[in-house]
Design brief:
Largest sheet: 5 strands, mixed
Strand order of the largest sheet: 2-4-5-7-6
Oligomer: single chain
Number of strands: 7
CATH architecture: 2-Layer Sandwich
Distance between the termini: 60 Å
Helix content: 40-55%
Structural class: alpha+beta
CATH class: Alpha Beta
Length: about 200
Amino acid sequence: MLQDESLDEKTRAQYYDIIENETNRLQRLVTDLLDLAQLERDSYPMTKEPVVYSQVLEDVLYRLEPIARAKGVTIESDLDFDLIILGDHDRLEQVIGNLLDNALRYTDAGKTIHVKTFAETEYAITEIRDEGRGIPKEDLDKLTERFYRVNKSRTRKDGGTGLGLAIAKHIIERHEGSLHFSSEVGQGTTVTVGLPLLPDDEFDM
């Protein structure tokens, strides 16, 4: 079709944009499928070391702040930098990035996303609470299933590959942690991540 000489430059440019977007989407899908396959057979490359956990969140927040600002969404954070865990910084950043990206995607302008880290017994806890559209209770337990979408009417352009939360769940499990969702339709969603704290006698920062 691009070889059709009757196409004007504007239409041709639109077709090129469509092709580029579809190519990028397919690349993300292939990458996510490979990541998920490796995680499911426990061959996913992961390097664990003592990590200042809240630094992971701060790195992600720094990267996403311009996107939130452009959308008119405020991100408020309350981070405890005394939390040390044994983890893979890049993989944990991948998880937090996915969770915050979801919160941004479904939170409208003028609303706020609240991010907090704190210690609870022997765990570092992260709460990401948005003021978005919320999720029906019957969907909460299915969120980490591959390709699951809460709103079946949404097109693939409205979201990611449908594998991000499945990957996040596996990465958290590889860190012996937990991932929990709570939500009320019209009131927003809270995602809670729990990761084991590294005992004081096991690290020397």
